Amino acid sequence: MLSPDRHSVPPSQIYVWDPFVRLFHWILVVAFTVAYLTEDDLLNVHVWAGYLVGGLLMARVIWGFVGPTHARFSDFIYAPVTTLAYMRDLVLFRAERHLGHSPGGGAMIVLLLVFLAATVVTGLVVYGGDQQAGPLAGMFTKEFGESFEEVHEVIANITLALVLAHIA
Description:
Largest sheet: none
Helix content: 55-70%
Low-confidence stretches: none
Order of helices and strands: HHHHHHH
Radius of gyration: 20 Å
Distance between the termini: 43 Å
Shape: elongated
Strand content: under 5%
Mean pLDDT: 91
Structural class: mainly alpha
């Protein structure tokens, strides 16, 4: 028989994500949202939100090598075969649970990091060319910067689609 005290003890909680990862995630959410929703009329806000995304990505990449276990890339980057098998099992409702990122979650994180970085880099190219401003100022013509803007927008839209898939 269980003692009455046993019922009053809350279940133990396991904190998987360290404070840096939690803070990174939510600041990234805000920065990407602000950057996505602002542009021409609020170009300075758009640019600074993009710089923030870029800085966060650099910090997260470093943390992916030196952070605690579940923050490290080695903890959630799986072989493609393992990831595809996990995705199949997920669709068939028989996927194993993972503490930390699953193979599918790890693949999504990599895709998000790559497309966020591509969004930042293409934004810097556009800003450097079209506005002749930022760290790439003068490296590209105004015409090239303007023409590259569509590439930046397409990559940002793909990133948004990945974010929505991540949420789903």
